Amino acid sequence: MLQAEENLGMVMIFTLVSAVQEKLNEIVDQIKTRREEEKKQKEREAEEEEKQRFHGTPVTIENFLNWKAKFDAELLEIKRKKMKEEEQAGKNKLSGKQLFEMDHNLDTSDIQFLEEAGNSVEVDESLFQEMDDLELEDEEDDPDYNPVNLDSD
């Protein structure tokens, strides 16, 4: 309206269009600036949230010892529950490691067994044959054999 009143009596179409275009550019710039500020604000808020998420209780010796005691108690309770479940299920078998830890005589039991048997080991010599009886391929029969090139078959 201000441009129209200033240019009364003259050709003003171009002037009015130029004024409207400038005003629209200002409005678009304001919208862009506002959006960028909102985006930066959201980024700052997200960054603060991230910092808050990783900010925890500072670790001191007392805090750690309290946590460790609770953690050990929880582990002990879990082990007790597992042992009770195994006993109820009839799975009271010990593993090999547990057996050796309980009875150290088990590591020498095989030696005692052999000593009681009299250390007599019988060997069936018929299982062993003369090398001549074995059917091995001769190197000369192999077409791929190359004595110079040892990498070949």
UniProtKB/TrEMBL annotation:
Pfam families: DFRP_C. Gene3D superfamilies: 6.20.400.10, Ubiquitin Conjugating Enzyme. This is RWD domain containing 1. InterPro entries: GIR2-like, UBQ-conjugating_enzyme/RWD, ZC3H15/TMA46_C. Residues 50-117 form the ZC3H15/TMA46 family C-terminal domain. Residues 35-53 have a biased composition (Basic and acidic residues). Residues 122-144 have a biased composition (Acidic residues). Residues 35-55, 122-153 are annotated as: Disordered. It comes from the Eukaryota. PANTHER family: RWD DOMAIN-CONTAINING PROTEIN (PTHR12292). It comes from Dromaius novaehollandiae (Emu).
